[in-house]
Design brief:
InterPro entries: Diverse_substr_monoxygenases (IPR051260), Luciferase-like_dom (IPR011251), Luciferase-like_sf (IPR036661), NTA_MOA (IPR016215). It comes from Streptomyces actuosus. This is 5,10-methylene tetrahydromethanopterin reductase. Pfam families: Bac_luciferase (PF00296). This protein is an alpha/beta fold. It contains 16 helices and 13 strands. Helix 4 packs across helix 6 and helix 13 packs across helix 14. The longest helix is centred in the middle third of the chain and has 21 residues.
Amino acid sequence: MDKQIRVTAFAMNTPTHLSPGTWRHPASQGRRYKDLSYWTDLARTLERGLFDGLFIADVLGAYDVYAGTPDAALRGGAQVPVNDPMMLVSAIAHVTRHLGIAVTASTSYEHPYPFARRMSTLDHLTGGRVAWNIVTSYLDSAARNIGLDRQVGHDERYDIADEYLEVVYKLWQGSWEDDAVRADDHYADPAKIHPIAHEGRWFTVPGIHLCEPSPQRTPLLFQAGTSHRGKDFAARHAEAVFAVAPEAAMLRKQVEDLRGRVAAAGRDPHDIKVFSGCTVITGETEAEARAKYDEYRSHIDPEGMLALFSGWLGFDLSPYGLDDPVRVVPNHAVQSIAETLGQGDWTVRDLLERLALGHPPVIVGAPDKVADEIQQWIEETGADGLNLGHVVTPSTYEDFVDLIVPELQRRGAYKTQYADGTLRHKFFGRGDRPAPTHPGSRYTHAALD
């Protein structure tokens, strides 16, 4: 294959991300998630491996659907405790020169006006290397702690997100003209700074953006929703999408559907880079890799896993037996996961056996075998790259950097150096700002006047 494979690292500011219990593994440094040096060391490793970015997940709320309490999640360290991902960005940027940093933030519980300032600040401090993973939140526990009875309905969350994006586009793209900052006798020219005068259904923002234009203006936009409504949202706004599927044919169908929607939205179908979830367990030999796989599985906390799945699916799995089929009921949780599991196609045992070590595909083997399977997966699915989860951190990433990257480079399937420029320019090679067909580009100062 001629295409060079992109790779981001999928992490979270918590003891364990997708494999509860693995913080107990002797090689895991997951308990150091509170230490800044843990993150700066990881960032240096990823940049040494020429990763495109560090993708930091987040959730605002505890997984308390399982048995009606957060106890199982707390015992397993299943995405709780969880710290704010944005606090990590400046330190990571300081020790790297090229690595992109994608942070997850919800449109459901923070007003767009202060959020726009925070992201512009990070884009300045990173020299244009920040990205925003747009989510709409799915846990009732988060909604209750914000003061709501329960979360807003799934599709309405995306309706709110559409207006949220309109507000931040106006602030980032249109409020300040490119030459508004003079820095001579006056710092900025008031005639070139425009109130956005936004009055919508959910938000009213009359004034100017508080920040001068940052290198990208709008951070590179990631999105992870693969429900029907989520894909429509991604087709309109996203520049990169994180997708998960247990089989190549299923992911190919998602990718083709998404690219069709992008074209229908008036954009180039390849204006979105698709990153497939993936887990790699490797070693110098096949036997070493298989031994790691078996050892990692022995540390999994089954109840912690079911706490995550109960939260994602929106219903309690605690009454289920191991061989009971999981029949998904309509709700407002993560619809894409429900669609993947089907109606009774998976049992609880399937969840624990097939997904305990992270998002599929789970590729286990010596470097040549892993490289073969990665290339085959990318070829068969039409994805642009991998969002690489970890089982034991930082070992998962160190193994990939030391063993898999050189093998992919030898095959011409992985870059040997970074391109210069902002994260958006690294992704698309055509400058710092959103493409002319992207909706953000329409919100110029002229459009606001």
